[in-house]
Amino acid sequence: MADVKEKVQAEELDDDEKGKEDENWYQNAVRNADLADYSPVKGCMVIKPYGYALWENIQRALDKMIKDTGHQNAYFPLFIPESFLQKEKEHVEGFAPECAVVTHGGGKKLEEPLIVRPTSETIINFMFAKWVQSWRDLPLLINQWANVVRWEMRTRLFLRTTEFLWQEGHTAHATPEEAEEETKKMLEVYKVLAEEWLALPVLTGRKTENERFRGAVHTYCIEAMMRDGKALQAGTSHNLGQNFSKAFGIQFQSQAGPLAHAYQTSWGVSTRLVGAIVLGHGDEKGLILPPKLAPYQVVIVPIYKTDEEKQTVLARCREIEAQFKDRIRVHLDDRDQHTPGYKFNHWEVRGVPLRLNIGPKDVANNVVEIARRDTGEKIRGVSQDGLADYLTKLLDDVQKALFERALKFRSEHTHKAANYDEFKKIIENNGFIEAHWCKDGECELAIKDETKATIRCLPFNFEPKQGKCVRCEKPTDQVVVFARAY
Length: 486
Fold this sequence. Notes:
Largest sheet: 11 strands, mixed
Radius of gyration: 25 Å
Strand order of the largest sheet: 3-7-8-14-11-10-9-22-25-21-20
């Protein structure tokens, strides 16, 4: 009865209260799982060891994929001369409100203010102009792992902070075809990362002119649905054309002879992906982590009452830990000051995929009990012989189950809207809406203003289909995906 009452009360909340409730759940989940904490500087966060381990696993997986596609890592300065941003007008207009500016250093006023990088296109392209002379110098394929600063007005741990960590790829090419191929290739890398590692299905497509990166010809994105039905932009890849190469003089001697400006791309994902995991898989207990990225894939909890049982059970737990620690990220929770029940809750909140419970009877019978975080299922009587192989297979099953669960949720919360009244009713409960759009930016902005829904992307897999714009009813063949988003 209490559950029914709570459900009715939740349904009676207005939109603002629901939003606050969702935000509180998210902030509590992040902090209770020990992923991050607030910094003394407003809008910044401290990433704690457990949260940083999760980010490191994401970073490690993506870094390999980036290198496997022929890119090399480098590092560029945090400070950018203000004049650099002024060289690319559209770019500086897009970032001006978010920029942090340094005007003094060493006790003196600087001759030229320095921008704390919001992104690195300008400083990197200044260097590219020095490095590129001939078509033989191309393609130039560079990636950097760094921090950036954007002075956000409304912040939320991992999802939107004043300072965050990311990778940003920057490339230069001899032809527009090569640049376009690169842009879509890296978007596909991000899709693989999201689906095969984060276990989050994503839509891929192009952003509208209103939503594209300022300074880009085209912006492509991956969009994931969170458990509350909202969208999260999880990664972007930009075809910059020659906008920056002309601004910074990146010219090369072409094979045909004349000088030509390079064609460029940039692409990036950030610590926002940690937030995507929390929002994309979490439940009322807290985190549910995909095994491929979990800092601990398996936690062993010993259960005993007497000192004699403690000695016997801990000895067996350490034997089991040693069997597969080279294959599986495992942690033995041998803290003596906490009860098994406390430990069960502790690791559930932190989203550890599998928990092994081992007591005196389990030792005597040479078995373990396994608890799955994703389903809550307890698997009893699993033999300790061949346990590493069993757990490896089970971790794969959990990874696949999380993806299928997220895919099913997205399918169930994706709708079609035939008219604007229907659209407005559907969007109140969040989810994705597939609808026709007239390709007019003003109509797009009106929808955003009236419903808080934005066009998330023009999906690659949508074929042109004749119909009427969901708002203005003009004839159009463009079908897009709308959603409210983080």
